[in-house]
Amino acid sequence: MGFYSEKILPDLIGCVCSRGAIMKQRAKVVPRAKGQVLEIGMGAAANLELYDTTRVERLIGVEPSAGMRRKAAEKLADTTIPHDLLDAGGEALPLPDASVDTIVLTYTLCSIPQAEDAMREMRRVLKPDGQLLFCEHGRAPDPGVVRWQERIETIWKRIAGGCHLARPMDQLITGGGFAIREMEAEYMPGSPRFAGFDYIGMATPA
Ligand SMILES: C[S@@+](CC[C@H](N)C(=O)[O-])C[C@H]1O[C@@H](n2cnc3c(N)ncnc32)[C@H](O)[C@@H]1O
User: Whole-model pTM above 0.85?
Assistant: First the structure.
């Protein structure tokens, strides 16, 4: 891994992803996490302050970037929630089938290279009565915005840690074997439209 992705990007992502407007979007779903909770691509652990500590029995974070794990570990050092931070990607989760109650997926599916594989893995490890809480940015509903998303995606991916701008998040979730039970989809206030169309909601195994 290069200097940029392991030394500069973690600070950049940690900073951008914890600004007020984004925290408000996360807060719509993260406090609902309960039981054994798996967070995919934990990043700098920006969600940590939003968990209801009376409902979360254990928090398992998977994160393939050493630089991001370093940032997450700094935050996790202060939490009372029992936790594990694992060096793994969403495409191959080192967890048994049907072993977690909640999966938290926030601003990560955009960055996972094999997003379809990761969704299948999430479906595998989630209990039949479990929930997937998601808050992801992706493909906008307006053709003019999509044109921009597709135009700049190649260069954007290079500076933003592999982040895809135009992924249809609802289709990826349902394609992975989930039924979306609740969803709001909206442009995040104060964000550029090409990177700010959010899909926020809850899904269960289909
Ligand atoms: C924009 S950050 C979001 C981090 C965090 N989920 C949050 O809500 O702040 C995207 C994260 O996805 C992680 N990531 C990249 N490839 C991944 C993969 N294959 N599986 C899981 N996470 C991945 C990155 O290392 C980074 O931490």
Answer: yes
| CA distance linking residue 200 with residue 71, whole number of Å | 25
- SS3 assignment, position 14: helix
| CA 113 to ligand 1 centroid distance, Å | 10
Are 80 and 56 contacting, i.e. CB atoms less than 8 angstroms apart? Answer: no
How many CB atoms within 10 Å of residue 53?
10
CATH C-level class of 3-205: alpha beta
* Ligand 1 centroid distance, CA of 203 (Å): 20
Q: What is the pLDDT of residues 129-185, one digit of tens each?
A: 999 999 999 999 999 999 999 999 999 999 999 999 999 999 999 999 999 999 999
Q: Is 14 in the pocket of ligand 1 (CB under 6 A)?
A: no
Residue with the nearest Cα to atom 14 of ligand 1?
Answer: 41
203's enclosing H/E stretch is: strand 197-205
Establish how many alpha carbons lie within 13 A of residue 10's alpha carbon, considering only the half-sphere containing its beta carbon. Answer: 22
Give mean pLDDT, residues 33-47.
98
